[in-house]
Amino acid sequence: MTGCFDGIITAMITPFNENGVNLEEFGKMIEYQIEGGTDALVILGTTGEPATMTESEKTETIKYAVEKARGRIKIIVGTGSNDTAKAVAASLKAQQMGADGVLAVTPYYNKCTQTGLYEYYKAICSAVTIPVIAYNVPSRTAVNILPETAEKIAMLPNMAGIKEASGNMAQVCETMRRIRGKMDLFSGEDFLNLPMLAIGGAGLISVTSNIAPALVKKMYNLVKENKLDQANAVQDFLLPLEDACFLEVNPIPIKAAYNMIGFNAGVPRSPLTELEEKNKQILLEKIKAAGLKTYD
Fold first, then answer.
1. What is the arithmetic mean of pLDDT over 261-283?
2. Which of 14, 239, 277, 294 is the most exposed place for a label (fewest CB within 10 A)?
């Protein structure tokens, strides 16, 4: 299945306060994304810290995002798990609540085989009718979707794509060769956005676009217009900011960045910690250099 999603898809943070999820601030962030030209939002993905959220918090976040979007922007919900039954249940729930699609990370910690990966995605796709995007991030999960497995899962009826964050462009190119015309490729590495688009990627699932959606969208549009020299210039301009957004493990820096540009993102939940002071200064400098207004 191709063509379900494209463009800029922001991997949203979840703003917390002392009472739980700060829905009012989350709404402001959604509006900021819409104004910046973002095409879709991933909520409850890695950047959204779902591992530290209660089920009721996840439910209220999905409900709020779907209602706030009101058809103006697509909502994709992170539903992956290391328990296939939980991933299926979460995907069904997201569908019932009005999500436009789900993003299912590979089962983490269990270290299943490639056959296990196929069966996992088959179970999810068999349970729902909305588009499903696989998420390959072996640095976090200890399992890697190999190109031949990606080709196999691409044949599942509602498998809409793969978010590639392996960091291995040789593997990504082989995966793209095998899935082309069957399901879409989405960049899951901000540093590799441009090359993944250049080989035929449909879009970007970006962390940096949390704070710079218009800039990231500009680069995407230039690639799609075959203006690679201009696209490279924008990517060169963005790269120092992208580097700064990963000074520490995601989403520690991007939550700090949201606070720096005037939002109340709060702080990450334990065991994640606030951005270290030395890195705050670097991040602030790069945000200013990118032309974003700060409130420091």
1. 95
2. 277
Active-site option among 120, 135, 220, 258: 135
The question of whether 295 is a catalytic residue gets the answer: no
Please tell me which residue in 68, 163, 280, 286 is annotated as part of the active site. 163
Closest CA to 84 of 112, 56, 53: 112
Q: Which two tokens stand for residue 105?
A: 């990370």
pTM of the entire predicted model: 0.94
Domains of the chain: 7-228 (3.20.20.70)
Could you tell me if 243 and 207 are in contact, meaning their C-beta atoms sit under 8 angstroms apart? no
Q: Tens digit of pLDDT for each residue in 40-50?
A: 999 999 999 99
d(CA 195, CA 281): 30
Q: Which amino acid is at 69?
A: A
Residues whose CB is less than 8 angstroms from the CB of residue 126 and which lie 6 or more positions away in sequence, other chains included: none
Please, is 10 exposed, middle or buried when counting C-beta atoms within 10 Å of its C-beta (0-12, 13-18, 19+)? buried
Which residue type occupies 290? Answer: A
The answer to whether 93 touches 58, Cβ cutoff 8 Å, is no
Query: What are the angstrom distances between the C-alpha of 53 and each of 223, 249, 269, 275, 277?
Result: 37, 18, 9, 20, 26
